[in-house]
Amino acid sequence: MNSTIELLAPRYDIAWYPWAVQYFFMIAVSYASLWLTAPALIFGKQAWLPTARLALIACISTTLVAPVALLADLHQPLRFWHFYAYANTHSWMSIGSVVLPLYLISILGLAWLAWRPALQAQRNTAGIGGFIAKWLSMGSGSTPRALVAVVCLAALLLSSGIMFYTGAELAIVKARPLWNTIWLPPMLVATGFIAAAGLLLVLNRVSGLCSQTAIRQMLYVLLVACGVAGLIAFSWFLDGINAHVGSVAAALESVRYSPSWRNTALWGGITGIGLFAAVIVLLTRSPKRQPTLFAWAWLLGLVAIHMGWMFRWVVLMDVQHVARNSAGFHHYGIPAGSSGILGIVGTFGLWLAAILLIELFIPWRQAQQGGVSTPTPLDANASSDSLAATSDSLNAKQGAPNHG
C-alpha cells in the first residue's frame, strides 16, 4: 500500500528587527564613551581632557538615541509601560527597563555638570546662543569638582548594569546556541570599546579639534580592545572545537556547513587583525612621521565603527537565519521600510541631529571637565602628554568657533 506523508513547516517571523542592532550598537558606544571620560571627569587629568570632550559628546548623543531604537523594536512602542505594570525580576529585559532610565538620567546630569562652567561663560553672549546658555546653566554658582566625580562614578556603576543586562538577555536564550554562551557578553563590551574609540577618532577629525593627544590615546584603546576581542574570539573557538557537548559546540555545529558563516568568520578575522596591525604601525612610527600618519587615523576609526556595528548585525540578525527546528538556513531580506533600511538610516540621522544640536548650542570645546573654569597650571615636572593636552585645549579655544 502506497502512502504519502506531508510535512508542514510553519512560517516564523524574526523576533528582533534591525532596530535592535541600532540599540545594542548605540548603547555600547554610550557606555564605552562614558568610561573614556573617567580620567578627566574623576581624576582631573589634563592630558585626557581633549579625549573627554569628544567622549562626552559621543556618550550623551548615543544615550539619547538608543532608547528610541529600543522602543521601536518593541513593535508597539506604547506598550513599554508593561515593563513597569507587570515587573518580572526573572526577566533581564524587565531589569533593563529599570537600569536604562536611571542610566539616562545620570548621563544627562553628568553632561550638565561638565558643560555648566562653559555655559556660564557664554551667558552674556548676544542671540539665541546666549539665551540658551543662560537657561541651561541655571545660575552663576560654582560647580564642585567633587560633585562631578560622584555623578560620574554613579553613571559608571549604572553603565556596568547596562553592560551586564544587554549581554545577559542574549546569553540566557538557550534556544539559540550562538547566543547561549558566556563569551558573548564580554565580546559585546570589547567591540563596544572598539566602536567608541573609532567614533572618537572620526569626531576628532570632523569637529576640527584634531588633537594629536586624543588620537594617540584612542589608538591605544583600540589596540587593547582589539587584543581583548581577539582573545575572546579565539577562546570561544577553542571551547567549541574541544567540547563535544555544550552551547559553543552546538553553535559551531549549527553553522559548520554554511559558506556564508565561514565568509563572515573570515571577514571578522581579517578585519580585526588588519585593524590591530594598522594601529601598531601608527604607534610605532618615528615621532617625526606620526603627525602626518595620525591625520589618517580617522579612516581606522571608520573601520572600527564598521566592525562594532557589523558584529551586532551578525549576532542579532544573522543568528536568526539559523533554523531552530529544522535543517538549513532561513533567508532574510532587509525591507526598505521603517523596520529595515529606513529605520537604520533614520536612527543614524537622529544621532547626527543630536550631534549638530550640541555643536550649535553647547560650547563643548571650552569645557574644562570637573568644574574647572580655567586650565590647571602645569608644574615644571609636567609630562609631555600633559603639555600636549594643554596645547590642544588652547588650540580648541582659538580654533573652530562654536556656532552657539
Task: Give the C-level CATH assignment.
Answer: Mainly Alpha
CATH architecture title: Up-down Bundle
User: SS-based structural class?
Assistant: mainly alpha
Overall number of strands: 0
Quote the beta fraction.
under 5%
Low-confidence stretches: 371-391, 393-404
Walkthrough of the structure:
With 404 residues, this protein is mainly α. It has helices spanning 18-41, 49-73, 82-85, 92-121, 128-137, 145-171, 184-206, 212-242, 247-255, 259-283, 290-294, 297-316, 341-361, 384-398. It has a single domain, classed as Formate dehydrogenase/DMSO reductase fold, CATH 1.20.1630.10. It contains 14 helices and no strands. Helix 8 packs across helix 9 (247-255). The longest helix has 31 residues, at 212-242. It is globular, with a radius of gyration of 23 Å. The relative contact order is 0.16. Mean pLDDT is 84; it is low at 371-391 and 393-404. It is a multi-pass membrane protein.
Q: What's the topology here?
A:
Blueprint: H1 18-41, H2 49-73, H3 82-85, H4 92-121, H5 128-137, H6 145-171, H7 184-206, H8 212-242, H9 247-255, H10 259-283, H11 290-294, H12 297-316, H13 341-361, H14 384-398
Helix pairs in contact: 1-2, 1-6, 1-7, 1-12, 2-4, 2-7, 2-13, 4-5, 4-6, 6-7, 7-8, 7-12, 8-9, 8-10, 10-12
